[in-house]
Amino acid sequence: MSQTERIYYILRKLSAGERVTSKDVTSKYEISERQFRRDIEYLKDRMNCNISYDVKNKTYVFDDRDVDKDYTEYRYLIVESLIDSLLGRLPIEQLLSEDIKSVLNKSMSTETRSVLDKIVYHAPKIDLPKYDTFSLIVETLKKNTLLNIKYVNRTQWKSERVVEPLRLINYDSVWYLVAYDHMYENLRTFHLSRIQEANELEGKRRFKGKAELDAYVDSGCGIFLAGEVSDYVMHFTGNAAFQIQTEVWHEKQKIMVLENGDVELTVPAKQPYELAGRLLSFCGEGYPVSPEKFVEYFKKCVDRLGFIPL
User: Fold this and answer.
1) How far apart are the C-alpha atoms of 224 and 230, rounded to whole Å?
2) 15 and 66 assigned to the same domain
3) Which of 17, 94, 118, 262 has a CA that sits 20 to 30 A from residue 67's CA?
């Protein structure tokens, strides 16, 4: 529920005419700058909030066009429909669910709340972690201890390594651990469901670079964070060209509409895996332009599809 709590907090402050700063939210909820920007984008794209950034004061505010008409309770209506959807999937006691919703009830009239059962909010999938692993990681974060893990990566390679847990990240409803890897002596991202076994260890922690960690977590598009950030360019045609103009893949993306109506999308990223998967979903109306490793990886994915029996 952490993102929902943050969304509610940001929305409540903006609706009251207050300004919201990155430092305020990131320190209050102990999240990264990148996660905060995603929350702002979520409010802008999913809840149609007209939020702008005041460069001079380094704060986020509602645009002036939102001042003339108060949409506050309608925004809360969307938040409660989201919460209803999430609560239906999470193992949360009824009493706690009622406590969470009671906070929102105060912000809406009875008449507005009466239409709640006519709103259907399809929340994203929820990846519930293995709680023995999740709780162990939380304990190591609390005590600043180490973990010895047995891990299987995306190519099914098995390894055993000692890591320093640094961040738990829920990205696209999937849980990941960002940790300093003693075997490779750098930062790595681990999919929680691929951790086969984990044990807490006492030992000296080596990683001290908070700025490096923030840069790692707040870097390019996607959850694959290892490597150098570079511009990944994709070309879209047909219906995909129209669709992509209304989508936000990254807060620093650039969209260029070409003379023939095609669209080029540029996003900062470190690895091609996630972007290639998204491109494949456009069924031939989207393909990579650069960098070369992105193009080559996409070609391999397409070649593999040729071997799938239909």
Assistant:
1) 13
2) yes
3) 118
